[in-house]
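Q: A small favour: would you put together sequence and structure tokens for a protein?
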Amino acid sequence: PSMDAVPVVVPKPDESAAEQSQSSSQTTTAMIPQTKNNDRPEMVILVYDVAKKKNIGTIIRSAVAFGVSKMLIVGNKKNLKTFGHQRTRDFMQFVYFDKFERAVEHLKKNKFTIYGCEICEDAKSVVSHPFEGNAAFIFGNEGSGLNQKALKACDRFLYIPQYGHGTASLNVAVAASIVLHHFSVWAKYPETSRSGFKFVVDETKKIAEPHINFIPTEKDLKRKARILAREERLKREAAEAKAGSAASAADAADADADSGASSAPKSTSATQEDGALALGTKRALETGSTENDSRPLKKQKLPTVVD
């Protein structure tokens, strides 16, 4: 879904702590791009307490594939690790909240039903599509699942049925992919077009400002500076290599041209001149004459020796 950004309200330095807290909440809400009204329910993910970066990266990839509009991240100074996203991160909107409660407050205010993916007594099978309206999904920690804070925030619970007997649960990224797919089918999201053996990637759908309300630390800024410096170095090296290749190609072309000129067949007149020169040289060697002409050699008569 496409989105329109709302202007940002920045807290003033002289506000009291309580006022700053309220203003911070309003600022975060104001900064969140609003999804344009359409006829289909919206789907978002609240990322909380997922520890492994490869799982977050895989969840991002699945979220982009199945039509998630935003990912809400708890911790606005947290440098989100997205290993494994396979270049899909540029197509996702990330909204950062300093506290879990503020993220939940935003979802409730905007009429999202919060679904927890957990194997608990009152959970409904995701296969039955027990969805209603806009949905926000919370997926638990890899080892302990949803903590008590997350459990209390959920309106409903989902579980994924299993049919084998060798594992107690699924990987969190795998579970997220299954749940997101079921919701997109239920919500009747339009299927992405295909080309050959792949789905079509629409570069125009990239998010211009993907990170909302993120406060970079000094470490983040240094890391970004290193990345930019490395990119500039790689561009410079590529340009130098390209220029070197062009110069080498030009030198090779010149060498080929010189070689072609030296090996080219001589004209008839040049051949005749070379023949005459060679004949003259031979005559000079035999007679001791330095005259260089092309007259036919005459047989020399040796002087008679008298004793």
